[in-house]
Amino acid sequence: MREVAIIGVGMSKFGELWERSFRSLITEAGLAAVKDAGIGGDDIDALYVGSMSAGRFIGQEHIGALVADEAGLTPAHIPATRVEAADASGGVALRQGYLAVASGAHDVVVVGGVEKMTDVGDVEQTNILAASADREWEAFFGATVPSLYAMMATRHMHDYGTTREQLARVSVKNHENGALNPNAAYPFTVKLDSVLTSPLVASPLRVLDMAASVDGAAAVVLCAADRVPSFTGKPVKILASGQASDSLALHDRASFTSLGATQRAAALAYRQAGITARDVNLAEVHDAFTISEVMAVEDLGFVEKGQGGFAVEKGVTTRAGSVPVNTSGGLKARGHPLGATGIAQAIEITQQLRGNAGARQVRNARIGLAHNVGGSGATATVHLLGGWE
Amino acid sequence: MREVAIIGVGMSKFGELWERSFRSLITEAGLAAVKDAGIGGDDIDALYVGSMSAGRFIGQEHIGALVADEAGLTPAHIPATRVEAADASGGVALRQGYLAVASGAHDVVVVGGVEKMTDVGDVEQTNILAASADREWEAFFGATVPSLYAMMATRHMHDYGTTREQLARVSVKNHENGALNPNAAYPFTVKLDSVLTSPLVASPLRVLDMAASVDGAAAVVLCAADRVPSFTGKPVKILASGQASDSLALHDRASFTSLGATQRAAALAYRQAGITARDVNLAEVHDAFTISEVMAVEDLGFVEKGQGGFAVEKGVTTRAGSVPVNTSGGLKARGHPLGATGIAQAIEITQQLRGNAGARQVRNARIGLAHNVGGSGATATVHLLGGWE
User: Fold this and answer.
1) CA A354, CA A349: separation in Å to the nearest integer?
2) ipTM greater than 0.90
3) Does pTM surpass 0.95?
4) Cβ of A97 under 8 Å from any chain B Cβ?
């Protein structure tokens, strides 16, 4: 397979953007990425878009063509493909774009992720999100995504002694980072006590343990190695792309305290890159819930199983820690516009590796990891990025 | 890129299958394809699924993981990816599977297509289908997919003298073929007069000009060239895979009588295979409406522009004609379960090239073409298949 670089990144602000449309968000992100890459519209060979549920949120399918059309790429008739894997849609789209370039089929590919969630009410949002879980065996019987993660949290606390306070510290840490991110939906800090006393959603998880449903879009430009010198965008290398699946319903999983798909995707990615978890300098992980980040840092191999809660307590995953996690603010503080999240993670890693992360910049960022999860864990992607030469 | 073969095919019966679920349909098709290929579940490296609107039809997203789970592939945690491009979802999924193998990322990939459409009522079906068109600029104002194709038909009749009878003959021909297809939803012949007097839907198109919304699933097994000898499935080569897009809304197109996406996808595919339209021995084209087939045989280069209606009148596209088109019965007689259609087309071509098409078998089938369209033409895929030798 050919080597592939990210040469441009762009994103909209994330948030409850009542005045913005699906179309305007993805176009803004795409144009920013194209400008950052220093390419023209004519250079784009193909387009991939990750979006979970535009059919339910805005009554629109056929999202690939829509985005190509809206971006003014119609005259070239480029292939435009939407992929969906619940809220791992962005990560899976990134992988398809990567394969399209690695295969030799295309040289320059734009990969976007987008979701416009706030055109429907809260109850309908919850119902749509439950379509990421097993409708027939979970959602029909009243399970929601928060309730599924609440069961994981309960079990993790029971098995490993993870505490309510440790979970809350994930939220506090990520808001500390997000407060420095101008694109974050919630760019402010939260106090430990605020998390611990926020309204209960599904015990033991509270409102401030959860990433909120927002609008947003993000895009990256991928480029084949031999074309990188043709453009001005500062390149970052995709060292590896791993993707894996697991049973849709929680009750069929081997474990309630690990995501098998994360473990498998990480193993594939580490093998492809020829590295181990110890070589990773920073990571964006899928903290849809605080317990998600606790499990992720374990499943990705940054800490021993069961130590995820203690790691955050000890500061291992802060910007100054040994493995900074979610320097962007994560899903918690940046907000979680489903399809856009996986791309936004890759953008944060790219900016950190470029040394362009501003007030959030960490030191010695040489290899970064982006980890995206669909629903309660039936899909996971792990991408490893590194410096170009 | 590596050479890729189709080594196994399988499909469910298509139809209004009230007693069947989304899960049971795709599992039936997938297992049939796996059996035909002579592979085991352990041989499967990745899964792709094309489905247009499971979110709206059955309240379920996260379709890749769902299918992997239902098929019992969970222990291996293989990557499972759903792609969507309206009713070109199957063709686009086939292309992603093809790229995944061609890139060297995977050796054996199962690609499925599925739609369960009859769990919602007719009006909701029409509304969901309109999500393949431009919601903001077409559907919100009352346009339906039939009304868009009706405009194309009207213009084609005006510009080229295409007649109402010629359109009807597409339906008659495809039902003659479909009557020989045991998996077809409507395996019976229709008389010319029946088409001409069937209820008007959107002038000049009538009920028997239109492919009906049904349930169904189809699957193929793709295999890297060097692994083909490991399995017993009779291989057919994927000579080329072309995909293209166009504006979502009809009013932005350069023409009302051609699909630019079809023309572009065909040009890409012919170039990749190093052949011309004249080398194609048979084709499955996207006859969602009778006018669709008339335009397709022109846009694919089988006849001159404007001659599509006259071609069917002269018998050019019958099983005994110079370019047999839709020997399976096409979308019209086989039925059109959106995401499944593009895969079912590839299956018909595979069976014809293998000499396994039974009563529908055409002579001298060496190169076949499968043409899948999304909505009113904003996405098109063209795949060329040939003998393995």
Assistant:
1) 8
2) yes
3) yes
4) no
